[in-house]
Amino acid sequence: MNQVEPMKPVLVRELIGESLREERVAQGKTLREISTSARVSLGYLSEVERGQKEASSELLASICGALDVPLSIMLNVVSEKMATYEKVTPLPIRPVAQAAA
């Protein structure tokens, strides 16, 4: 009898890395250019892009700054990818003023 292997859970750090790499490549920039601009080592940035390292919020902000992409936009991209993997509909984005009320 064939047994179905359980689906490997997707990790947020992998989706973040994938999204950062996709944006960098879409802009035609090298790892070296982004690592220099973000002030992070080339090796560490590479590990973040491959989903091997969990980047701090400060580091993510720095990398997004080097890519000229707001951190909120990058996190939204990651959120939508996660929703796809989880097969759920993402929550609609609400203005901050309404969310706090």
TrEMBL record:
It comes from the Bacteria. Signal peptide: none annotated. Pfam families: HTH_3 (PF01381). PROSITE patterns: HTH_CROC1. Coiled coil: none annotated. InterPro entries: Cro/C1-type_HTH (IPR001387), Lambda_DNA-bd_dom_sf (IPR010982). This is Transcriptional regulator with XRE-family HTH domain. It comes from Microlunatus panaciterrae.
